[in-house]
Design brief:
Shape: globular
Structural class: little secondary structure
Strand content: under 5%
Oligomer: single chain
Radius of gyration: 12 Å
């Protein structure tokens, strides 16, 4: 089943507080091009899968996206954050990320 996520403009708290979150690698290919707010997506979770293919060029808010996620350590070098205006606590206590 194909899901088209570009219909969402607010994609906040989807996986927040999900310690047993199990996803497959298709999450890396989700169409995020229409998302404007992506706050708290993986906050307080143990998520550690690649998201480097996400097109987040329209995202303005990434507050707490990985806050308190002690496992996340994946490359994000393909992310275009030029329109992002808020990253409050985005990686706060994300102790594995480097």
């Amino acid at each position: 089943m194909l899901l088209y996520y570009h219909v969402f403009t607010i994609f906040s708290c989807f996986f927040s507080n999900c310690p047993l979150l199990i996803v497959n690698n298709s999450i890396n290919n989700w169409d995020m091009s229409g998302v404007v707010i992506a706050n708290n997506l993986f906050k307080d979770s143990y998520f550690n899968h690649t998201l480097n293919n996400w097109d987040i060029q329209n995202v303005e808010f990434l507050d707490s996206i990985f806050q308190n996620n002690v496992n996340f350590n994946q490359p994000l070098n393909n992310w275009n954050t030029q329109n992002c205006t808020r990253l409050f606590s985005a990686f706060e206590n994300a102790i594995s990320f480097n």
